[in-house]
Design brief:
Blueprint: E1 3-9, H1 13-25, E2 32-39, H2 45-52, E3 57-61, H3 66-75, E4 82-87, E5 90-92, H4 98-106, E6 110-119, E7 134-137, E8 142-144, E9 147-148, E10 151-152, E11 163-165, E12 172-176, H5 177-182, H6 195-205, E13 209-220, H7 231-248, H8 251-274, H9 278-293, H10 295-303, E14 313-314, H11 318-323
Length: 340
Amino acid sequence: MKVAVVILNYNGKRFLEQFLPNVIANCDPTWTEIVVADNASTDDSVAFLKANYPCIRLIENGSNGGFATGYNLALRQIEAEYYVLLNSDIEVAPHWIEPVIEMMDADPQIAACQPKILSYDHREKFEYAGASGGFIDKYGYPFCRGRLFQNLETDEHQYDEPMEVFWATGACMFVRAELYHQVGGLDDSFFAHMEEIDLCWRLKNASYKVYCCPQSKVYHIGGGTLPKNSPRKTYLNFRNNLSLLVKNLPKRRVRRTILYRILLDWVAAFKFLFEGCPKDFRMVFKAHWDFYKRLKDLREKRKAGEQKPVSCIYQRNIVFDHILKGKKKFSELKQSDFTS
């Protein structure tokens, strides 16, 4: 099969009811297979699929291993040239697959690609999880073309040019199947959050490119599994962000970058406390403690791949530029400040 659209589900029956018909209607069955991988849901998702969509391939994982393990288990069982990792809470637009596949077919160096991600509820706005392509700054803070921290831009077609980016969102990621397995897939230890950034960084370290193709677009609800203001999400984001830095930064940059990030994380932790979020405050320090316990394993993972300077890293502190210099839009950042 040319393309396998793989939807990972965990207690998302309501999203499958709402969005699966739309995905089916916008996939050509002659060269596209739709697969639902279920992470041991307890909400009758599996019974719903078997009763209503018996022709849709269903992979039942034995437990909820999160986003990373759930996809790894499923994708080992699927033969296709391209995988599309698609969240269950996404509405796809007509002809959303073709522009991306045409781009990737034309350039074998493109390992992963995402469409333009717009908000399902506010369709004129970019959506938090990906917008029009992801980037990081030199300290590992992620942001997007169309989204700096919580500031979501209105889509006025200002970011419609296909371009190389640093990371493609896991909400809707097209990836070459061969390369996905070649670099080891998603990191099981991440469970969820930042795992797609880690994967894209490993692909770039292997000399491949990551792109955004805005000629394809989808609409994302977001926060379907963990709410946006979740201490658990805070924990995973802080722990996994430090982990991906240790795994992927060039050797000469690791120690200094990690020390600086830990200091900035402490600032963020006390900001949570002053804002009346004591659980988030505690989660930052729990994330650091668990990160320290994993250092030996992370160093072993470094040895499995190459670490080198790669493109599309913002060589400034995006936190400083956003908060202190008032930069609210991606277009306000100097392109000369990005590695090429």
